Structures are given as structure tokens and as C-alpha cells.
């Protein structure tokens, strides 16, 4: 036996459900351009009769309308995790590339003003000295040009050191960002677990948490494991960074300037155990690469070239004799690019002559000028260094452009899978609208039937 | 939910944006090439090209220096050549005077021979003066001496045994001075000593003049040999300078090939890229605009 008013209730449930559908569609359209938003769908379920027959069951076998089972977030976890991996790799490679770009700017080759040109000018001036060994102006020019070369080495080193210091500060601020983001993810974990336990919706919280985890991946190459209670654990190379509602923190220790990197290298460690944290990817790993590898290697190469210049020039210079006829002294002093200096200031002391006695021989100056092309000399070593820099910087650049393409594809797939398609939303909106209208119609039909029944039957 | 490939407005706009950014980046690269005029602006643009460019620059600088050195050497050898030419003429005159002394012999008057001797003396002084010729303040026959003279007024050599060389090519060094003793002889065979002897014999011992003439001829021959040697060295330096100058032109052309943009090509590429960018912009604007919303009322 069917209830007279049962149909009204069915129509009402339909009105509620279609309204909810319209609300979700509105939410989707509103967030069509929100970064990290996952589209939502209303899952409707027909309300059936009791599954088991009972004595006083009044089920008519049709069902009691519709209910909203859930508002689900349409997201592909596999794509999300792949996207995190690619983002981490991309930010690592971009970081490395930008460090190489800085180093390239420091050396500014090929140009008419780089270290190569300054060295070339020195060799030219030595030739001029050989042509005119008695001229004090020519001798002064040699010393001044030597000073220019020395300044070139000093400032290249200073620029590398400054670049290192900036990278160190950036590392600190990145780690601060890791720590605050980890805290946020832990808090969201807690909120999501509470929502899941209470059975209330948590879709927007999950979106926020996903954005936080994405940032953690970009920073550190972090990976995740989903838990049954709705929380997500975040790992750094197997060590836990966020476990449920607890976040651990990172800090950087060690050198604070380039000169100390060889003695106390910079390390990233856990603040609680002080154990070294292994950061496999992301911006932090790129920063560590710049601090521990790229900049120290370039600085060491520059030092080698400075020492090579000092050694070959001093050896030849001390083999000669100055204008006063006494044996030449060292022209350069220092231990590397940072403290390379011109050791003499008196132009008389430039040893242009190969024989003692204060004559105007220029043989030693010619020998000094010939150091420009000596095997293993500073010019050759410098060109070699620039060649290596060019090749590594180029390959870093190529890897970034490849990785950009990969990241782009994954992001696009993610946006296609989880993003909002306005045409689809419009179609859904139409469907909900029409269903709502139809349900309202059902209600008015039932109403008019009841009107007939109540007001027009059996009335005189 | 069906798993057929979805396309959403956001994925479309992301792809379009990435494409536009790539296109704009290419436009930026081309624009940098146009404004700097250089194909290689940093080592990573072309590591091989960078090294070649640096090598070529160093080579150009070296060749320019060789050319400069050669020019300086030409100055030295030129002045030596003209001095020696001048001196040869004077020595020839001294020989004529000596022959005159021999032919007149003891028969001529003492006054006549003294006149010859006086002229020989003045030639000798003039020759010593020529032997002290300087280039940029340095005596060209004095080796590497720091002094201003190669010979004192008594024809004693003041210079040293050093030689002045100019590097005019990779590993090519050419002597650009003439050693005083090598040019004018040493000891009793020295040109100035021989002339003093001739002058003395003209005055006091005309019989020895024939032997003196032989010595004068020997000294003169040494001078001639030295002059032709200087000429040969001058030619060699001139050739080396020519080679260096030609090499500079070659190297500059090669450097330009590697480093500089091909203007028509770059302009065409820039135009193409601009067109592509504009096309992408207009296509994006058309594709991203419509949705079902535009058609439903």
C-alpha cells in the first residue's frame, strides 16, 4: 500500500539533490582558474526500499527518491605524484642552470673586456717592453696592466664568493619555507583527519594540502604515502618530514663564506636529531649543488689559473735582470685568485734583460711575452676552464628545456583530468536545472492530484 | 567516470601559455642577437664557438703585436741600411783619395798629400759620427748598451756584445741591429783605425799606402757584406709583417663568421618569429574565448 504523500517527499528529495548539484557546478565554475583546484562531482544515489522485507514494511518497490551520497574530488593520485616528481626535478635543474648563468656572467666571455683580453694586453705590453726596454713609461705600462690582470682575478673571485654567499642565504630562506610548509601540511593533516572522522567534507582542505606538498616537492623532492585516516606522510629520501600531524624541521650548518666551504662544508640537518638530511631534489638540492660543487669548483679552477700565471711569470721574471742590472724579483705574489697581487711598484725593477749589467736588452721581456702560448700556461688553462663552463652550462640549459616540456605535459594532463571544463559544467548545469524543473513539476502534479482528491471528490 | 582524454579550459590555457612563452623567449633570443650583433653572448650559447672566438682573439692580438714589432724592426733596419749606404759612399771616396795618394806617390808635394790626409781625417770623423747613428735614442751599432754612443771620438767601441731582436712571428725572431765590431771590424782591421793609418801614411809614409789600400778594401768589403745582410733582414721582416697583416684579416673574418650574426638571416628569422608569435596570440585568443556559455541563454 502506497502513502498518499510519499510522492511529494520523493520530489522534495529530488529538488534538494538537484540544488546541491547546481551548487557544486557553481563552485566548479567559480574555481575554473584556481591553481590546484580539483573539480568536484555530486554523487547521487537512489533511495531504495529496505533491503530485507519486514512485516510492517510499506515499501512500494519503487523507492523513496534520491539522496546525495557524497561530493567527490576527481583527482588521479598517480598523476599528482608524477607531477610532484617532475616539478621537483624541474626546480632542481632550473636552480643549477641559474647558478651556471651567474658564473657565465661573472666571466663575461667571449668579449674584448674579459680576463682573456686583459691577459692578452699584458703579453702585448711585454712585447712593447722588449721593443723599448729603456723607456720607463713602457715599463710602467707593463706594471699597470699587470695590476689590471690582478684586479680581474681578484674581482672574479670576489664575485664567485658573493654568489656563494647569496646562495647560502637563499638556502636558509628555502629551509625556512620547507619548515613552515611542513607545519602547514601537518596542521591540514590534523584537520582532514578530524573531518574524515566526523564524516564532514574535506575536499578544499585536501586541495590546500596538495598545494603544500607540491611546494615541498619543488623545494626538496619530497615523496608521499597516503594513510587510511585521510592523512598523508611526507618523506625525504626515506626519512619522515611530516608524519600525520607532526612536522620535523631542517636547518643548514657549516661554512658561511666560500673560503670555508673546503674546511666545514655546508650540510642540511634535522633540527631534532642533528643527523644529516639527504635532500635528493628540488631547489634545496640545487642550492647544495651550487654551494658544494659548482661555485667551489669554479673558484678552484680560477685559483689554479692565478697560480699558473704567477708561477710561469715569476720563473721567467727572476731569470732576467732589471734596468739597474740586478737579478729580477718576483712580479706577482699571492696564493690564489683572491690575494693575487703585483709585487713590485718601481718600473726599474721589471726584468726585461736576459743579461746583467743594466743594458737595454729585451730578450727576457720577449720570453715573458711568449708565455702567452706556453703549454699549460694561464691563457690555455683559462680557455679550457671557459670551455668546460660553456659545456656544463649548455647541458644544464638543455636538461631544463627537456624537463620543462615533461613538466608541461604532466601539468597539462593533470589540468585536463582534475581541471574544470566549462562546457561540461554548463551541460551539467542544464541537466540539474531541467531535473529541478521536472521535480517541481512532479510536485505540482501530485499537488493537483491531491487537490482533485481532497477538494473535488464527493463534494456536492 | 569514463577515462577518455578530457580537455579543460585550464589545460588549454596552460598549453597555450607555455607555447606563447616559448615563442616569446625565442623572440627575445633573436632580439638579443640583433641588439648585440653577436651570435654568442655567453659560453653556453656555443662552447666550441666560444673557445674558437677566444683563440682567434688571442691570435689576432698576437699577430697585431708581431706586425707592430716588425714595423719597429723595419725602422731599425731602415735607418741602418741608409746609414751604411751613406758610409759606403764615404769609404769609396776615402779609397779614391788613397789611390790618388798612391799614384802621386813620393813624387808629389807634401802639401798635396797633407790635403788628402786632411780630407781622409774628416771622412773618418764623419764615419765615426755615422757609426753613432741612433734610433729612438739608442745607438744602432752599439748592441744593447744603455749609453748614447757606440764609438767614442777616438773610435773605441763603447757598446756591448748583445743583439737587439724583434719577434715577428710565432718563434721567429729577427736581429734588427748591426753589431759595431761586426760591421766596422776590430783591432788593426777596424775601418776607423785603417783610415787613421792611411791618413798617417799619407803624411809620413806614402810607401805603405798600397798595403793600407788592401786593408781598406777588406774593411769596405765587411761593410758591404753587412749592408746586404741588413737588406736581406729588412726584406724578411717586411714579408713577415705582410704575413701577419694578412693573417689578421683572415682571423677577423673567421671570428666574425663564428661570433657575428648574419644580419639578413637574423632579420628574416626575427620577422618569422614575430609573425609566428602574433599568429599564436590571435589563435589563442580565438580558441580560449568561446565556451558553451556564449551560446546558451
Mean pLDDT of chain B: 88
Radius of gyration of chain A: 38 Å
Number of strands of chain B: 4
Please summarize the sheet with the most strands of chain B.
2 strands, antiparallel
Specify the overall morphology of chain A: rod-shaped
Distance between the termini of chain B: 28 Å
- The total of helices of chain A stands at 9
Low-confidence stretches of chain A: none
Briefly summarize what is shown:
The complex is a heterodimer of chains A (460) and B (297). With 460 residues, chain A is α+β, with helices and mostly antiparallel strands.
Can you describe this structure?
The complex is a heterodimer of chains A (460) and B (297). Chain A is built from nine helices and ten strands. Chain A has helices spanning 6-30, 77-107, 115-131, 136-198, 203-220, 282-318, 363-369, 378-418, 422-456, and strands spanning 40-46, 66-73, 223-226, 232-236, 239-243, 246-247, 250-253, 267-270, 332-333, 341-342. Chain A has a four-stranded antiparallel beta sheet with strand order 3-4-5-6. In chain A, strand 4 and strand 5 form a beta hairpin. In chain A, helix 3 (115-131) runs antiparallel to helix 7 (363-369). The radius of gyration of chain A is 38 Å and the shape is rod-shaped. Chain A starts with 5 loop residues before the first helix and ends with a helix. The model of chain A has no long low-confidence stretch (mean pLDDT 90). In chain B, 69% of the residues lie in helices and 4% in strands. Chain B has seven helices and four strands; from the N terminus they run H-H-H-E-E-E-E-H-H-H-H. Chain B has helices at 9-36, 47-104, 110-131, 180-184, 191-204, 209-259, 263-288; strands at 134-135, 138-139, 165-169, 172-175. The radius of gyration of chain B is 39 Å and the shape is rod-shaped. Chain B starts with 8 loop residues before the first helix and ends in a 9-residue tail after the last helix. The mean pLDDT of chain B is 88. Chains A and B meet through helix 2, helix 3, helix 7, helix 8 and helix 9 of A and helix 1, helix 2 and strand 3 of B.
Amino acid at each position: 500500500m502506497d502513502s498518499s504523500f510519499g510522492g511529494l517527499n520523493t520530489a522534495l528529495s529530488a529538488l534538494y539533490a538537484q540544488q546541491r548539484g547546481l551548487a557544486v557546478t557553481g563552485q566548479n565554475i567559480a574555481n575554473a582558474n584556481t591553481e590546484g583546484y580539483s573539480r568536484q562531482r555530486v554523487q547521487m544515489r537512489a533511495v531504495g526500499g529496505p533491503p530485507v522485507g519486514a512485516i510492517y514494511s510499506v515499501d512500494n518497490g519503487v523507492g523513496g527518491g534520491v539522496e546525495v551520497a557524497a561530493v567527490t574530488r576527481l583527482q588521479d593520485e598517480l598523476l599528482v605524484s608524477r607531477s610532484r616528481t617532475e616539478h621537483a626535478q624541474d626546480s632542481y635543474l632550473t636552480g643549477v642552470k641559474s647558478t651556471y648563468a651567474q658564473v657565465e656572467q661573472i666571466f663575461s666571455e667571449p668579449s674584448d673586456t674579459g680576463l682573456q683580453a686583459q691577459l692578452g694586453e699584458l703579453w702585448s705590453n711585454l712585447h712593447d717592453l722588449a721593443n723599448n726596454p729603456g723607456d720607463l713609461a713602457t715599463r710602467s705600462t707593463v706594471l699597470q696592466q699587470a695590476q689590471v690582470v690582478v684586479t680581474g682575478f681578484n674581482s672574479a673571485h670576489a664575485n664567485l664568493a658573493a654568489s656563494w654567499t647569496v646562495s647560502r642565504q637563499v638556502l636558509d630562506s628555502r629551509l625556512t619555507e620547507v619548515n613552515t610548509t611542513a607545519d602547514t601540511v601537518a596542521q591540514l593533516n590534523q584537520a582532514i583527519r578530524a573531518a574524515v572522522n566526523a564524516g564532514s567534507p574535506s575536499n578544499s582542505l585536501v586541495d590546500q594540502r596538495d598545494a603544500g606538498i607540491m611546494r615541498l616537492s619543488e623545494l626538496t623532492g619530497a615523496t608521499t604515502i597516503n594513510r587510511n585516516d585521510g592523512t598523508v606522510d611526507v618523506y625525504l629520501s626515506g626519512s619522515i618530514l611530516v608524519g600525520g600531524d607532526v612536522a620535523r624541521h631542517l636547518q643548514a650548518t657549516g661554512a658561511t663564506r666560500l673560503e670555508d666551504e673546503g674546511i666545514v662544508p655546508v650540510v642540511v640537518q634535522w633540527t631534532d636529531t642533528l643527523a644529516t638530511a639527504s635532500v635528493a631534489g628540488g631547489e634545496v638540492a640545487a642550492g647544495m649543488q651550487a654551494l658544494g660543487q659548482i661555485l667551489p669548483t669554479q673558484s678552484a679552477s680560477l685559483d689554479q689559473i692565478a697560480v699558473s700565471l704567477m708561477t710561469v711569470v715569476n720563473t721567467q721574471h727572476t731569470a732576467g735582470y732589471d734596468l739597474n742590472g740586478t737579478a729580477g724579483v718576483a712580479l706577482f705574489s699571492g696564493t690564489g685568485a683572491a690575494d693575487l697581487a703585483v709585487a713590485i711598484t718601481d718600473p726599474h725593477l721589471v726584468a726585461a734583460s736576459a743579461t746583467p749589467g743594466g743594458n737595454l736588452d729585451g730578450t727576457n721581456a720577449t720570453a715573458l711575452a711568449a708565455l702567452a702560448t706556453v703549454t699549460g700556461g694561464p691563457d690555455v688553462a683559462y680557455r679550457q676552464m671557459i670551455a668546460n663552463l660553456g659545456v656544463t652550462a649548455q647541458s644544464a640549459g638543455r636538461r631544463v628545456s627537456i624537463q620543462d616540456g615533461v613538466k608541461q605535459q604532466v601539468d597539462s594532463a593533470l589540468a585536463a583530468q582534475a581541471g574544470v571544463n566549462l562546457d561540461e559544467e554548463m551541460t551539467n548545469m542544464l541537466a540539474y536545472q531541467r531535473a529541478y524543473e521536472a521535480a517541481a513539476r512532479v510536485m505540482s502534479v501530485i499537488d493537483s492530484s491531491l487537490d482533485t482528491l481532497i477538494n473535488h471528490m464527493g463534494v456536492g | 567516470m569514463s577515462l577518455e582524454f578530457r580537455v579543460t579550459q585550464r589545460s588549454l590555457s596552460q598549453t597555450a601559455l607555455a607555447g606563447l612563452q616559448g615563442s616569446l623567449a625565442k623572440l627575445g633570443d633573436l632580439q638579443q642577437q640583433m641588439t648585440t650583433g653577436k651570435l654568442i653572448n655567453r659560453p653556453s650559447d656555443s662552447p666550441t664557438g666560444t673557445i674558437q672566438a677566444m683563440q682567434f682573439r688571442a691570435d689576432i692580438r698576437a699577430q697585431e703585436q708581431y706586425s707592430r714589432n716588425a714595423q719597429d724592426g723595419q725602422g731599425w733596419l731602415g735607418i741602418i741600411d741608409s746609414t751604411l749606404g751613406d758610409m759606403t759612399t764615404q769609404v769609396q771616396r776615402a779609397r779614391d783619395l788613397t789611390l790618388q795618394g798612391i799614384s802621386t806617390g813620393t813624387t808629389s808635394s807634401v802639401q798635396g798629400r797633407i790635403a788628402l790626409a786632411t780630407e781622409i781625417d774628416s771622412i773618418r770623423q764623419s764615419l765615426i759620427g755615422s757609426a753613432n747613428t741612433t734610433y729612438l735614442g739608442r745607438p744602432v751599432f752599439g748592441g744593447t748598451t744603455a749609453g748614447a754612443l757606440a764609438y767614442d771620438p777616438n773610435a773605441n767601441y763603447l757598446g756591448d756584445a748583445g743583439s737587439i731582436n724583434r719577434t715577428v712571428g710565432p718563434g721567429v725572431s729577427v736581429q734588427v741591429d748591426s753589431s759595431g765590431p761586426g760591421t766596422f771590424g776590430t783591432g788593426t782591421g777596424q775601418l776607423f783605425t785603417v783610415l787613421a793609418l792611411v791618413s798617417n801614411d799619407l803624411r809620413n809614409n806614402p810607401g805603405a799606402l798600397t798595403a793600407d789600400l788592401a786593408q781598406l778594401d777588406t774593411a769596405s768589403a765587411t761593410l758591404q757584406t753587412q749592408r746586404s745582410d741588413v737588406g736581406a733582414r729588412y726584406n724578411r721582416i717586411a714579408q713577415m709583417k705582410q704575413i701577419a697583416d694578412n693573417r689578421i684579416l683572415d682571423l677577423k673574418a673567421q671570428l666574425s663568421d663564428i661570433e657575428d650574426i648574419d644580419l639578413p638571416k637574423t632579420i628574416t628569422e626575427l620577422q618569422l618569429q614575430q609573425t609566428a608569435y602574433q599568429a599564436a596570440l590571435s589563435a589563442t585568443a580565438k580558441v580560449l574565448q568561446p565556451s558553451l556559455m556564449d551560446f546558451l541563454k
